[in-house]
Amino acid sequence: VTLILIGLLLWSGSLSWFGRLPGDIRIERDSFQIFVPLVSMIVVSVVISLVLYLMKRYL
Predict the structure, then answer these.
(1) Are the CB atoms for 22 and 38 separated by under 8 Å?
(2) Domain boundary assignment for the chain
(3) Cα(24)–Cα(35) distance, rounded to whole angstroms?
(4) How much of the chain is helix, strand and coil, in % rounded to 5?
(5) β-sheet bridge partners, residue 36
(6) For residues 16 and 2, what is the distance between their CA atoms, to the nearest angstrom?
(7) Spatial contact of 41 and 32, defined as CB atoms under 8 Å apart
(8) What is the pLDDT of residues 8-31, one digit of tens each?
(9) What is the pTM of this model?
(10) What separation in angstroms does the CA of 53 have from each of 21, 26, 29, 34?
């Protein structure tokens, strides 16, 4: 259910900032593209860690 909600948020454009944060690396050349979402993945990691911590503490 959570993945479906996240997918709907991404699809609707509500999370359009995700992947475009300062610190996300995007290199575009004529023959290739590289995208490394470093800061976005750190944000995801912190949010997941917080949710798991709160679930462990209060449930």
Answers:
(1) no
(2) 19-59
(3) 8
(4) 55, 15, 30
(5) 25
(6) 18
(7) no
(8) 877 887 777 778 889 999 999 999
(9) 0.70
(10) 25, 32, 42, 33
pLDDT given at position 33: 95
The amino acid occupying position 21 is L
Percent of the chain with pLDDT over 90: 56
Any residues with CB less than 8 A from the CB of 39 and at least 6 apart, and which?
21, 22, 23, 24
Helix (H) or strand (E) holding 31: none
What pLDDT shows up at residue 19? 80
CA–CA gap between residue 57 and residue 43 (Å, rounded): 21
The pLDDT of residue 44 is above 80: yes
